[in-house]
Specification:
single chain; 245 residues; alpha/beta; Arc Repressor Mutant, subunit A; 2 domains; 5-stranded antiparallel sheet; 15 strands
Length: 245
């Protein structure tokens, strides 16, 4: 299964570090942030599956940040705050927060809330790349996801199998993000049942990557687009431009 990537946003260094370490110990990739600019910087870097957002961030207001983020995307957000009165909870829900956890909190309760929100939201994001329609451009290539057609920089159409096409979609949606073999396998799991044999799937992903490289790389033995990320898996290491249709 893909490992969820969480962003922990709190200007209290001790609280932020405690939450990051706790979530990492329970199997998540947890990244620290202290402000709205930090949040946007992390979102620009790659995939985030859920944000834990403190309401009081020095001069910034977490409720306002939540409202701005929600107007731009459907990223799950859990507000965390010492302000637990009903009006504060309602303000959080009014701007689209998925949950609200008052401080001080039991870490196990926070963990349960995170898992519950991820369960409710993970199927839609995980299928988003299959529903997306539009044109993607990368390194001179053009992929029309509505017609499932890909054209080389020279203008020739290249034929991909259904599974190669799914892999390409995953990569295009996660450009510059290192992906493990298990994450790729989970994204390709059409049934969504999560029954993945890591060793067998890992070998299958390697074979699939090799096939895709043979079709889109000028020199598959020295790939420039779909590169091996040592100790992790693979990374699509070129800029991708998407134009919705």
């Amino acid at each position: 299964m893909a490992i969820p990537r969480l962003l922990v946003v709190d200007d209290d260094v001790d609280m932020r570090d405690m939450m990051v370490v706790f979530l990492q110990k329970h199997g998540f990739i947890a990244l620290p942030a202290a402000s709205e600019s930090d949040i946007r910087s992390e979102l620009d870097k790659g995939r985030i599956d859920l944000i834990l957002l403190d309401v009081m961030l020095g001069q910034e207001n977490g409720v306002g940040i939540c409202e701005r983020l929600r107007s731009e995307q459907e990223l799950p957000i859990i507000l965390v705050s010492a302000l637990s009165a009903d009006q504060h909870l309602m303000a959080g829900y009014a701007v689209g927060a998925d949950d609200y956890v008052p401080k001080p909190f039991n870490p196990d309760l926070l963990l349960a809330r995170v898992r519950a929100v991820l369960r409710r939201t993970r199927r839609s994001p995980s299928l988003a790349y299959r529903r997306a329609t539009g044109t993607w451009r990368f390194a001179g290539w053009l992929y029309d996801s509505k017609r499932d057609e890909i054209y080389s920089p020279a203008g020739y159409q290249i034929m991909l199998s259904r599974r190669e096409t799914r892999l390409l979609k995953v990569l295009l949606a996660n450009a510059h993000v290192p992906l493990t073999r298990d994450e790729i396998a989970a994204a390709l799991d059409v049934t969504g049942d999560g029954n993945i044999n890591s060793e067998a799937q890992g070998r299958a992903i390697d074979v699939l990557v090799g096939r895709l490289r043979s079709k889109i790389e000028s020199n598959p033995k020295h790939p420039q687009l779909l590169r091996t990320e040592r100790g992790v898996g693979y990374i699509f290491g070129v800029d991708v431009e998407r134009m919705d249709s």
